[in-house]
Design a protein that fits this description.
- With about 120 residues, the chain is an alpha+beta fold.
- It has one domain (about 1-120): RutC-like (60s Ribosomal Protein L30, Chain: A, 2-Layer Sandwich).
- The protein is built from two helices and six strands.
- Strands 1-2-3-6-4-5 form a six-stranded mixed β-sheet, with helices on one face.
- α2 (about 80-90) links the parallel β4 (about 70-75) and β5.
- The two termini are about 15 Å apart.
- The relative contact order is 0.24.
Length: about 120
């Protein structure tokens, strides 16, 4: 089984927000853009919260929750902000956090991007 999840906002480029396949949800990299306004916060911490909120929204559209996430990949433009990002991340994954990889990289116009894999609940 393979099903594309579209929304909450139409992508500008060629991708689906998530793919549901064989009991898993593969969420495309989400950034800090507010889907209602199209704007991204200027503040790093607010960008991290918005990005995690966007992951949560897409997961919900696929029938999953943050507790169902098994793997997260995080891209940060500044690894010196790791502690601040990790503190916010813990708010969204307070117990049994998923496996995680954090990568320092260049991101055009944003400070953080995240993708994830989740298991659909039974």
């Amino acid at each position: 089984m393979r099903k594309a999840i579209e929304g909450p906002a139409k992508p500008r480029f060629c991708f689906s927000h998530a793919i549901v396949a064989n009991g898993f949800v593969f969420v495309t990299g989400q950034g800090p853009m507010d889907n209602a306004t199209g704007a991204s916060p200027d503040n790093f911490e607010a960008q991290v919260r918005q990005t995690l909120g966007n992951l949560k929204t897409v997961l919900g559209m696929a029938g999953a929750e943050m507790k169902d996430v098994v793997k997260v990949t995080v891209y940060l433009t500044d690894l010196t902000r790791f502690a601040a990002y990790d503190g916010i991340y813990r708010e969204f994954f307070p117990t049994e956090p998923p496996a995680r990889t954090t990568i320092g990289c260049q991101l055009p116009g944003i400070l953080v991007e995240m993708d994830c894999i989740a298991v659909l609940p039974d």
